[in-house]
Write the structure tokens for this entry.
Amino acid sequence: MSSADKNLSVFNTEGLPDISNKKFAIVVAEWNSEITEALYDGAYKTLIEYGATRQNIERGNVPGSFELTLGAHWFAQREDIDAVIALGVVIQGETKHNDYINHAVAQGITNISIKNNKPVIFGVLTPNNMEQAVERSGGVHGNKGDEAAMTAIKMVGLKEQVAGK
Ligand code: RBF
């Protein structure tokens, strides 16, 4: 399926790990908050739907997507946290900053994921306009927050598999 047709809320759920004792942190950018709140709702509900408990999901806010890296790093450094989900939206065309922000955050999230040896998920929408953002935050293309949460769950499972647990 091409990425343009993909529904972000439809996934293969075979072999998911037991996450009832796993801790998740969700870091949410406040910029474009009408979209990022919808991403958060999707991520939270997906974690709960697949077995996480409410007390094992923590939330932290950052002003904009650029700050997601450091916010996520602080959570990722905590030993009790198993995975971090970083949520933001940078609308291309609205700002020349988008390239810098997107690249910096993508690179930053990759770095802190490796540095902390745990999943840190890039749940940042990079749509061309607000309409596309709405379509991907609970609209016709599903919700990027759902997909980011499912990615976190799958990576937690893979880490256990590789560790032989
Ligand atoms: N943060 C976002 O999460 N999404 C954006 O689309 C976004 N656009 C920005 C455009 C400009 C011109 C500036 C200066 C900042 C933008 N930010 C955006 C905020 C950025 O991630 C960060 O919070 C600020 O740059 C910190 O001062």
